[in-house]
Amino acid sequence: MHSTDMICYETYLETAEWLLMKTKHRPKVAIICGSGLGMLAETFTDQESFKYTDIPNFPKSTVSGHAGQLVFGELAGKTCVCMQGRFHMYEGYPLTKVTFPVRVFRLLGAEILIVTNAAGSIADDYNPGDFMIIKDHINMPGMAGLNPLQGPNDERFGSRFPCMSDAYDRALGKLALNISTQMDCNNLMHEGVYCYVGGPSFETIAEACLLQKFGVDAVGMSTVPEVIVARHCGLRVFGVSLITNKVTKKYDSIEVVDHESVLNIGKMRAGIFQSLIMELVGRLKLTSDEEASDLRSMITPYQVV
Ligand code: HPA
Q1: N or C: which terminus of the chain has fewer CB atoms within 10 Å of its end residue's CB?
Q2: Is the CB of 120 under 6 A from ligand 1?
């Protein structure tokens, strides 16, 4: 962590204030869309969109398959904000930038963060096109000393040593599982452990075997930094991975992975993915508008317009 990577409270506030001025929406649910999954925002009604390049202090997205805009709107009767495209460490961003939007969402009044990603499967019984509700994670860069919360702690966001044993909300995971049964797609659903790796190179065979021994079910290059920062500032988290490929664990295997096949599986499963998230959002229990507005005015010194 370099001192230049630190982002001060006022910078998050400036961005939140700009957005609160530009949009009439007051989102309680924030959604981060992974590679090829950004179409979800297109189903929002009463949309208002902001390109990352136009939002003060926002990093810019550089990966194909990520639109690079923030979309506000209504989904299943709830006000949401959706990131079409996220920031990754492999693009060269420090983790404070990767996670910048999460604290902004908190300042906008969000209570729940939904994170989605494309991931490779390590578990033998997962197939491309399956979904995995994230029940826990392994933060590989974190274990090696790279965590978005490094540096001085700002108590206005959260405590110095946040608990992570309850990172993924169990009630929300159960709700998603019930919804998939009702949607008759529970044969595609798993619950498992997601491992965050830095990327951008995919795993070697030896790495894949190691991850399996560690108890990993799916591996990807995102999500965990955002979840850590979300839990630190008190957001409830639901995470789901779309399995886009099997990670090769045998030297005689002919399976290889590329970014295009990752995006294609996203397109193939867009319909089910959107229905699942829409149904979940529709059933979320959130605070009333009055309570939420109290919360926003407590966190931000700004007039909520
Ligand atoms: N490994 C890491 N990240 C990924 C993969 C993978 O196989 N597939 C999609 N994202």
Answers
A1: C
A2: yes
Tell which residue, 286, 302, 273, 260, has the closest CA to residue 63: 260
Q: Hey, which residues does 84 pair with through a beta bridge?
A: 33, 69
Q: Domain of residue 178: give its range.
A: 6-148+162-299
Which two structure tokens, joined as six digits, stand for 97? 């930038």
Name the 3-class secondary structure at 254.
coil
What total of structural domains would you count in the chain? 1
Residue nearest to atom 2 of ligand 1 (CA): 220
Element (H, E) at 189: strand 189-196
Angstrom distance (rounded) from CA 154 to CA 142 = 19
Query: How much distance in Å is there from the Cα of 193 to the middle of ligand 1?
Result: 14
Ligand 1 atom at shortest distance from the alpha carbon of 220:
3
Cα of 189 vs centre of ligand 1, distance in Å, is 18
Lowest mean pLDDT among 118-132, 154-168, 205-219, 264-278: 264-278
Is residue 1 one of the residues assigned to a domain? no
In a domain, 22, yes or no: yes
In a domain, 76, yes or no: yes
Its pTM surpasses 0.85: yes
For residues 221-248, average pLDDT:
97
Q: Is residue 194 part of a domain?
A: yes
- DSSP characters for 105-158? HHHHT--EEEEEEEEEE-STT--TT-EEEEEEEEEHHHHTT--TT-SS--TTT-
What is the CATH number for 122?
Answer: 3.40.50.1580
Distances from the Cα of 208 to the Cα of 131, 172, 220, angstroms: 19, 29, 12
In this predicted structure, the answer to whether residue 290 has a pLDDT above a threshold of 80 is: no
